[in-house]
Design brief:
By secondary structure, the chain is of the alpha+beta class. The chain is built from 4 helices and 4 strands. It starts with a helix and ends with a strand.
């Protein structure tokens, strides 16, 4: 490798490392998806989450965490309407989450969750972690 190519390679590598560092320094985003689940399909939803959805999303660039939570009770005020489960999805950036949604993997695994929903199916709210 000649010196010019070496310097170009090092410059590109340095820029890529800086971009990753900037993204890693910012707090991740978190999407809260409230799910209206058919009571008879709860077991299937949980099984599909554990065996299909979670393993697939976990491999995506920028993935931080995913959790499926079942509503127990409202401690103060009222629980969100038409919500029996909440899906928490966290990525390093919103751009990475949007990229995940556009993938063939997402198009393949999301229906395994959505087919267990009823009514308006779900609502989603995006948060920046403070």
């Amino acid at each position: 490798m000649n010196r010019r190519n070496y310097l170009k390679t090092m410059a590109v590598a340095g820029a890529a490392t800086a971009a990753v560092g900037e993204a890693a320094g910012a707090p991740p985003i978190q999407l809260h998806v409230d799910l209206d689940v058919e009571a008879a399909k709860e077991k299937e939803l949980v099984s599909n989450f554990q065996t299909i959805f979670k393993p697939t999303i976990s491999k995506q660039p920028g993935f931080v965490e995913v959790k499926l939570m079942k509503l127990r009770k409202a401690m103060k005020g009222s629980a969100p309407a038409n919500t029996s489960y909440r899906l928490l999805i966290s990525f390093q950036t919103e751009e990475q989450r949007v990229t995940w949604v556009a993938t063939a993997d997402h198009q393949r695994v999301w229906p395994s969750i959505e087919k267990n929903l009823k009514g308006d199916k779900f609502s989603a709210v995006l948060f920046d972690l403070a």
